[in-house]
Amino acid sequence: xxxxxxxxxNLAKLEGIVSEMEGGRLSLxxxxxxxxxxxxxxxxxxxxxxxxxxxxxxxVSGNQEPPQVEPLDIV
Length: 75
Known about the structure:
This protein is mainly alpha-helical. The protein has helices at about 5-25, 30-60. The chain has 2 helices and no strands. It starts with 6 loop residues before the first helix and ends in a 13-residue tail after the last helix.
């Protein structure tokens, strides 16, 4: 779980857990297990998204054109 799977795989697993829990057919014990696993998946996905957001910001800020410099009037 989590680290060995891609973001997309973890997200799909989380969606499956939510679907099972919404179905109302799980025992209380199974609901708790799914909740715990879902919480770990949410933390992992959130961390991955934050890492990607930081990488995007770094790329975007690195691609800015250099500031315009006005020539000095030396008299």
